[in-house]
């Protein structure tokens, strides 16, 4: 018996453990300090009433013989896929129901999709980015190369003559930088993928935070993208489903490589290894698209957007450069006075009692940067912003 040796190549995931340790230690030494956490990537507002009502009603259906549901379709119920197709139609994107696959969240599918690709492919991953892309590829023994995302390209790398990749990850709006590609940027990647016969894995987990109507919320808003891209999305940040678990993946019928439709491969993979998202949860997710559901979830997003605005305004007044905050719940700020990201973490914790996330935890290019999130409440966000302003204007 031999274990998968690639797991031994993974770096110890110490980012959030280290943050937790440092915060606990500081709190123990300074119990009087009211620590405010702007490091959280999880939502804090509860599920909206329309979703709760749908979950309750679906639960009751499950307790009645006539309306009980056993195994459902592995790729999801049509009632939810129809709502998702309707949502995409508003963005000008037409989807067939068989192109939509309901999942228990974007994270699982982002990892699982790698089943479809040979280990020999070269994978291009932006640096910095959500660490799951790198780790899942290392687990599979795949060669990873990085696309530098830095201040020089607004944290939005584009393909150039040196780009050499078969699989390309794009996360827009980006975690952690909050940067969002415009149409021209996404088109450059779509054109590259077409020329190269590469496949783009587009993570749209934060699409609902895009406020600027000129920015794309789906890669399929770019012409020809259906021939090159798989899109992952989630109800986690859109509707507070981080603990409820539901997402979806779009594998267009037009995406064909080596004469094989990837949609068929993914269907085969899912029907073999996955038994679907609970009926109750899919009913809750469908309620996100009802009139009240849309209104209520948007109100929650606006609440977080207001937090982002408070933080962004503070940094504007301080003259600190940052990306994000306008079309994203994340604010990616330059550490002041050339501080390293862990150094700034300690400085902010010790002098302002505010916790953020050191950029170095998201990749080598994250060094010297710091991520603040909009997921705390107004009161704490305002308090934290005031403390940051007082400290950094010294
Ligand atoms: N993609 C990105 C970029 C994320 O930041 C996250 C979670 O923070 C996910 C995907 C995971 O989403 P889900 O909760 O749907 O698994």
UniProtKB/TrEMBL annotation:
InterPro entries: Aminotransferase_I/II_large, DapL/ALD1, PyrdxlP-dep_Trfase, PyrdxlP-dep_Trfase_major, PyrdxlP-dep_Trfase_small
Cofactor: pyridoxal 5'-phosphate
Key words of the record: Aminotransferase, Pyridoxal phosphate, Transferase
Binding site for substrate: 14, 41, 107, 130, 175, 275, 371
Residues where N6-(pyridoxal phosphate)lysine is found: 237
Signal peptide: none
Pathway entry: Amino-acid biosynthesis; L-lysine biosynthesis via DAP pathway; LL-2,6-diaminopimelate from (S)-tetrahydrodipicolinate (aminotransferase route): step 1/1
Enzyme class: transferase
Residue positions binding pyridoxal 5'-phosphate: 71, 106-107, 130, 175, 206, 234-236, 245, 275
Family: Belongs to the class-I pyridoxal-phosphate-dependent aminotransferase family. LL-diaminopimelate aminotransferase subfamily.
Protein name: LL-diaminopimelate aminotransferase
Species the sequence originates in: Candidatus Faecivivens stercoripullorum
Underlying gene: dapL
């Amino acid at each position: 018996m031999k274990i998968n040796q690639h797991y031994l190549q993974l770096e110890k995931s110490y980012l959030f453990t280290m943050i937790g340790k440092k915060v606990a230690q500081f709190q123990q030494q300074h119990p009087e300090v009211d620590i405010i956490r702007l490091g959280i990537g999880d939502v804090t507002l509860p599920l909206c009433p329309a979703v709760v009502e749908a979950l309750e009603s679906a639960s009751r259906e499950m307790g009645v013989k006539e309306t009980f549901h056993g195994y459902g379709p592995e790729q999801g119920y049509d009632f939810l896929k129809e709502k998702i197709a309707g949502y995409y139609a508003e963005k000008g994107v037409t989807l067939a129901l068989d192109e939509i696959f309901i999942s228990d969240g974007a994270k699982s599918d982002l990892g699982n999709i790698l089943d479809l690709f040979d280990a020999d492919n070269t994978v291009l991953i932006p640096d910095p980015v959500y660490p799951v892309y790198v780790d899942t590829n290392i687990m599979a023994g795949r060669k990873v190369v990085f696309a530098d995302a830095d201040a020089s390209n607004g944290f939005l790398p584009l393909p150039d003559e040196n780009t050499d990749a078969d699989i390309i990850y794009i996360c827009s709006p980006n975690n952690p930088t909050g940067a969002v590609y415009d149409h021209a940027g996404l088109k450059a990647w779509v054109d590259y993928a077409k020329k190269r016969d590469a496949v783009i894995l587009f993570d749209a987990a934060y699409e609902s935070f895009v406020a600027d109507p000129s920015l794309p919320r789906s890669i399929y808003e770019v012409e020809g993208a259906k021939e090159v891209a798989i899109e992952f999305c989630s109800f986690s940040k859109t509707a507070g489903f981080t603990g409820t678990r539901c997402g979806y993946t779009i594998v267009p019928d037009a995406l064909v490589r080596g004469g094989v439709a990837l949609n068929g491969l993914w269907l085969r993979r899912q029907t073999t290894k996955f038994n679907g998202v609970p009926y109750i949860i899919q009913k809750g997710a469908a309620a996100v698209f009802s009139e009240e559901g849309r209104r209520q979830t948007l109100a929650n997003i606006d609440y977080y957007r207001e937090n982002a605005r408070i933080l962004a305004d503070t940094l504007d007044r301080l003259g600190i450069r940052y990306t994000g905050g306008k079309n994203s719940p994340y604010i990616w700020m330059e550490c002041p006075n050339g501080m390293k990201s862990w150094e700034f973490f300690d400085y902010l914790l010790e002098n302002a009692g505010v916790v953020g996330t050191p950029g170095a935890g998201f990749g080598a290019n994250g060094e010297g940067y710091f991520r603040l999130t909009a997921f705390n409440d107004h009161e704490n966000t305002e308090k934290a912003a005031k403390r940051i302003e007082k400290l950094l204007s010294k």
